[in-house]
Write a structure and sequence with these properties.
Alpha-Beta Plaits, single chain, disordered N terminus, about 300 residues, Alpha-lytic protease prodomain-like, alpha+beta, 2 domains
């Protein structure tokens, strides 16, 4: 016998709507900062003849594109459940984060390709002055600040797209560090240092992409999100619950779905069993705010329904 609280997903959406509004505000702010950084690096890089700086500016424009992808993903994910999507649209964030991961792979490939081209063909003359350092250090500080701020909110809101976008912004900071290092070495007469450092940066960017794909895979493959034993012990504290088994969880970090089997007194009236199931559901949702829906399967505590320890 199963008790399904089908309206729980809908009821959870006032809180989820506020979460999505915060995520959208953060993404709009990050988009504006990324565009400011991109114009500063591309503009001065073009003026001074620094291809590395100009290319770094182009990479920042890609960050802006990722922000737009994130905005679309969060907007779609904020839609409430409907007849065609009874579990909601939360995975739209996961798909958006995967797109950002693909953008990172492309960025890593472009950085590596440019680095190899520079190693083979040699570097053109670059004018390096104090303005070059001011632009690069200033934009680096902005990127690191944005990455820290966005990543912190991503963890707080359990938003995959914010965490993925923060990693993308952090990868742009790595590129900026390589450009600063290249400026220093160019002044010291080691022009090839720019290309060598860029190869290291390409590997770092690729690592960020792999991390994003791992997180997305957890959601898309329905990997377990909560500790089954912890859920069972929690529900067993509810008066009327004799034992718990078959605990499962899946979903994204910010939208988890749980189902479990609860054994009760076989003589318990249905109305009372319904109350026990409701209390168990409320306890799970209050303990784990990221849980969007709980399905409690009510079973009589008889030999045929009992499961071995740990099942």
């Amino acid at each position: 016998m199963a008790y399904r609280t089908s309206q729980n997903v809908v009821a959870a959406y006032p809180d989820r709507a506020e979460r999505e509004r915060k995520a959208l505000r953060i993404l709009w702010a990050v988009l504006g900062l990324n565009m400011l950084v991109a114009f500063a690096k591309f503009g001065w890089g073009t003026y001074s003849g620094s291809n590395a700086m100009a290319n770094d500016g182009i990479a920042s424009f890609f960050d802006g594109v990722s922000n737009l992808v994130g905005l679309v993903g969060v907007k779609i994910a904020s839609r409430p459940p409907d007849a065609g999507h009874p579990y909601g649209h939360g995975k739209a964030e996961t798909y958006a984060s995967a797109v950002i991961g693909i953008a990172l792979i492309i960025a890593a490939g472009e950085i590596a390709y440019k680095a190899f081209s520079d190693l083979v063909g040699g570097e053109d003359y670059i004018l390096v002055d104090w303005v070059s350092y001011l632009v690069m250090v200033g934009t680096l500080v902005v990127n690191l600040g944005v990455s820290f701020w966005e990543g912190r909110w991503g963890r707080r809101l359990k938003s995959e797209v914010l965490e993925a976008d923060a990693k993308h912004t952090r990868s742009d900071a790595y590129v900026s560090v390589s450009v600063i290092c290249s400026l220093i070495f160019v002044q010291l007469g080691f022009a090839a240092a720019d290309a060598l450092v860029s190869l290291i940066v390409a590997l770092a960017v690729l690592g960020s992409a792999i991390s994003i794909f791992r997180q997305a895979n957890r959601t898309l493959s329905d990997a377990s999100r909560l500790d089954a034993g912890q859920i069972a012990r929690l529900v067993e504290t509810v008066d009327g619950v004799r034992s718990v088994h078959g605990v499962r969880s899946r979903g994204s970090a910010g939208q988890i779905f749980v189902d479990l089997h609860v054994l009760m007194d076989p003589e318990l009236p249905l109305i009372d069993a319904h109350g026990v199931a409701t209390e168990a559901e409320n306890l799970i949702e209050s303990t784990f705010p990221e849980v969007a829906d709980v399905v409690v399967h009510m079973e009589p505590d008889i030999a045929s329904e009992r499961k071995p320890e740990g099942a």
